[in-house]
Design goal:
Number of strands: 0
Helix content: 25-40%
Radius of gyration: 18 Å
Number of helices: 3
Order of helices and strands: HHH
Strand content: under 5%
Largest sheet: none
Distance between the termini: 18 Å
Length: 87
């Protein structure tokens, strides 16, 4: 088994991480709350065999490139890559 995650050499060292309070960015805080509410609702629905959650099996918003509040994410969102085969 192997998992390959290519990262440019020096790429991670060039990042300067920062700790900030989520409340400093109200839009992001709203997205986080929307995601949390949606996730909690979905998980609760899994207890009902007739629910949409059971029929869907898993939330696909990230896979589809949709933000938690329902708006579309980045235009260049991709869920599939066309990688070259091993030589």
């Amino acid at each position: 088994m192997c998992h390959i995650f290519p990262v440019s050499r020096g790429g991670l060292e060039a990042v300067t991480p920062q700790m900030r309070k989520l409340s400093e960015n109200p839009e992001l805080e709203g997205e986080c709350k929307a995601w949390s509410d949606s996730r909690n609702s979905f998980n609760k629905g899994l207890n009902d065999p007739n629910s949409d959650a059971v029929r869907e099996k898993w939330q696909k918003s990230y896979f589809r490139g949709v933000c938690p509040a329902g708006r579309n994410g980045p235009e260049d969102h991709r869920s599939r890559l066309k990688l070259k085969p091993f030589g």
